[in-house]
Amino acid sequence: MPHEIHDHQAVLEAIRRTDIIAELVDQTDGQFVYELDLEVIAYGRNYSGKKVGPYAHLLVYQSGEEVITQGDWGGNSFYVGVEGELNVFINVAGGERKLVDTQKPGKSFGEMSVLAGLPRTATLAVPDGATAKVLLIERPALRLLRKLPKFGQMLDQVYRNNGLRRTVDDVLDLSARPDGKALAARLAAIAEFKIYRKQQVLVRSGDPIENIYFVRHGWLKQDLSPGKGGELSAEYFGPGNCMGLIALTGKTNWDHGITMLAHAEIMEAPLSALRGDADLVAALTGIFQTDPSTSTINSNSTATAEATEREITTGLIDGSNLLIMDMDLCVRCGNCSMACHQVHGQSRLVRRGISFSRPVVPASTRMQHILAPSVCLHCADPECLTGCPTGAIGRFPGGQIDIEKRTCIGCGDCATQCPYNAISMIPRQGSAAATTGGMTSLVNFLNLSPPALPPAVTEITDLLAVKCNLCENTGMNPPGAATQAYSCEHNCPTGALLRVNPREYFAEAGAAVGLVYQDKTHAIGRNIHRHDPVARLWHVGGVAASILLTALGLWAAFRYGLDGRLGGTWLTVRWITGLVGLVGIASVMTYPGRKQVYRRRAGPLRYWLLAHIYAGVIAGLLLMLHGGRGVGGLLTTSLMVSFDLVIASGLFGLVCYVIVPRILTAIEGEPLLVEDLEKRRGELRAQLVQLRSDNQIGSLVDREVVPRLLTLANLAQQYLRREPLTDTLASARAQFRIVLDGLTERRDRERLVAAIETCATLRRVDALIYLHRLLKVWLPPHVVSTSLMLILMLVHIIQVVYFAVR
Question: How far apart are CA 793 and CA 108, in angstroms?
């Protein structure tokens, strides 16, 4: 472990001796030019009683000690050598490490991990028999040090040089030529590394081709000529694409313009220099067999192109761990948010966010409706890190973005910087997960009311920033766990929720990643929206078990009769079917118990729900066989009736779970919580009351608009037509065209149109609220009938055992 020198004068002297940051201690007339910045960086400063800084730490490393290690995530600090050389090693095949360079004092290292969010690319260690003194500088100091002219220029140059070197290496690594190193040196000598802003034009249609462009980072869009049928016609290029090579075969002009869809980093090489190097041209054309910029055929449907552009422009495609919800599967139960709240003490999952539709497969007419809720994406280039004054938020060893509670001062800078509203501010005292006693847990288990919302945050002092940390350091991911588990995904009953690598999941955008980087994208987990073998196994096993056990029961009943003894034993078909049915009911009742387990792994809830369904089916079939044809006494009849009610309500709930979410997503446009819808309905009703009270058109609204739009027939049309709200509003206005034309005053026409649109929108909101309620209305009768059935079954078992013993 390194030894830290805490003497402030020694730290100042180390800064003064380091040329690239020496300007920080420049003085004019005996005063430090950057006095406030120097104070925070070297000494630290108190703001409202909370310590910020120091950001610079003088460390002494002994012989053989590693300062940074290749592969580690080091996005929170970089280093500047003060005294002593450092050996630079890189890992090679076979687990060996190779000495490739020597780092001299006065130079910085490790800054690319901070600037680009990358793991360390090399190991720097102290040579044997030597010592080294370095300055460790934390990320928050960057925004202060950038003010220094020399440091700012150096940082920009280092970033570009490193970007160029890594890009050249990435490209030529695909070439098997023995002169690869010489080619890399020649390409680096003629190329430039440039950074482009969003919406900046790279080339225009018809411009002469003067450079080749290799995309290191970012996304570009090429507008093509109109496709057949007038579809949106565009091609998209992501990292790893090379454009302009077609000019080496005689093409002289760009056929289409290319624009930046996001911040992009591009290596440019002039064609004039390339043409004079036949070996380099041969290597590049061998790697890039085709030039994507020459495409003249629109391979994307309008829906695919729109989805691709939405995924890119929102930044979702650049998340390293993205939470998505398939709204066609989501039953709006809120169990994901509840699981997050139970694990962390404060839910970090808000079921609002970015929504869009995408083809299930490219060019398919079947659409998938996606919601990316307001949860941390663990971005490759996170904006939330830029404003933190203490460095409390950073990239942790596992690569995830997290917040260190001990150093967070609750300033809220990270929350305001996050473009996805994924960081919340909560009272520091309320951050621990709530615990419940046995009686409280039992009451919650039997409670049918929806869980109460946590109280609103009203405090403005002593706050703590919280966000999704991928359930690290919780019971969901105990030490030694082979795979990562997430409480929200683990506790979704239908498998609607999934954490994904967006480039793997969104195939339409992932296809835009070029050859160089295609093999560097890895899925985080199994894509259960496309293929879930475990669920398929449950379905196959459940159906097979239901058919087999029912067939065996029927065969035995016809062969031996319900009450005929088997093989001279006391067992009868009635006993066997009753016992197996009882085991099935016991299995069914494990699901509500599993649903209360949030803070540790207990198997994905979606598989428990499948077990619940198939165990219920088996129990139902065998218990109906157990009852036989006779009606029985009052107890038996009541038991069978309650059992029928359980089955009927459960089947109704299952049908609702399958059908209702799909209708919801078809008509709601952007997913909304039922609380949002009820609030909107109140606003629309108040607006309608105001319009009906208008002296000029109030009677017209009461006589014409309300009776025609606020009807059951119009409510049913919302479910049958499933058209966008804009089409519904246009249709509603068309119904009253004659009435509108008869009004002479412009104000009256505008007020009447407002009344028409208010009523039409109100009917749509009503339709959505009823669907939300339909997803839950079956649950109380199902629970009540189940409770009644269990009581009657217990009495029935006691009765049967009593008479059997007698």
Answer: 76
Give the tokens for residue 651: 């089947």
Q: Is the peptide bond before 54 cis (omega within 30 degrees of 0)?
A: yes
**Tokens 């359980």 sit on residue:** 646
Residues 208-221: tens digit of each pLDDT: 999 999 999 999 99
Phi, psi for residue 141 in degrees, rounded to 5: -70, -20
How far apart are the C-alpha atoms of 565 and 575, rounded to whole Å? Answer: 10
Angstrom distance (rounded) from CA 774 to CA 771 = 5
Nearest to 270 by CA among 260, 258, 280: 280
Is the separation of the CB atoms in 199 and 260 below 8 Å? Answer: yes
> In Å, how far are 163, 167, 288, 297 from 203, measured between CA atoms?
22, 21, 20, 19
Tens-digit pLDDT profile for residues 155-174? 888 888 888 988 888 888 77
Tokens for 170, please give them.
Answer: 């990435």
Q: What's the whole-model pTM score?
A: 0.85
CA distance 319 to 505: 12
Tell me the C-alpha distance between 705 and 692, whole Å.
10
Task: Tell the residue number behind the tokens 């339709």, with chain if given.
Answer: 767
- pLDDT at site 134: 96
- Strands laid side by side in the 497-500 sheet: 350-359, 367-374, 322-326, 497-500
- Residue 93's CB: how many other CB atoms inside 10 A? 6
Residue bearing tokens 């911040």: 263
Find the largest Cα–Cα distance for the chain. Answer: 112
Q: What is the DSSP string of 180-198?
A: HHHHHHHHHHH-EEEEE-T
